[in-house]
Amino acid sequence: MRILIAEDDPVLSKSVSSQFEKLGFVTDVAFDGVQAEILMKEQPYDLLILDLNMPKRDGNEVLCALRRGGNNTPTLVLTARGALDDKLKLFNHGADDYLTKPFRFEELEVRCRALIRRNRGLANDQIEHNEGAR
Fold first, then answer.
1. How many Å apart are CA 50 and CA 73, to the nearest integer?
2. End-to-end Cα separation, the chain, in angstroms
3. Which of 16, 51, 56, 85 sees the fewest Cβ atoms within 10 Å?
4. Is residue 129 one of the residues assigned to a domain?
5. How far is CA 37 from CA 26, 58, 84, in A?
6. Structure pTM?
């Protein structure tokens, strides 16, 4: 599975990329919005992790352009902006999930897996109850 990480912070993008690669994902990194759009047009991705505050073109503009162009790649917005207005705007523009920084990688991972699963039609409505969890 291939993930595009659109994040201008080189330390964060390297960390997220490395952790997903350890889990068997193939990752590409875009350090600005223009590069993210180019990569999204060049090949299919199973998921886009998108920062909002990027140079050249912000994440909201990237998301809007992708959706207008018919690209329905599941997109998780990963940003420091936590205001409800920001979240509502991004969901209305086509974001599939939204996670604020700082975050735990474990949460990012399960959210990404859920988006990929749902997009592939593998999600179901059954909830398993673990007797050991309380």
1. 11
2. 33
3. 85
4. no
5. 18, 11, 26
6. 0.85
Question: How many domains does the chain contain in total?
Answer: 1
Of the candidates 9, 65, 71, the one whose C-alpha atom is nearest the C-alpha of residue 46 is 71
CB-CB contact of 105 with 16 (8 Å):
yes
- Residue pLDDT, tens place only, 59-96: 999 999 999 999 999 999 998 887 898 888 899 899 99
Residue span of the structural domain in which 101 resides: 2-119
| φ, ψ of residue 2 in degrees (nearest 5) | -115, 130
| Spatial contact of 5 and 16, defined as CB atoms under 8 Å apart | yes
In this structure, what CATH number is given to the domain that contains residue 29? Answer: 3.40.50.2300
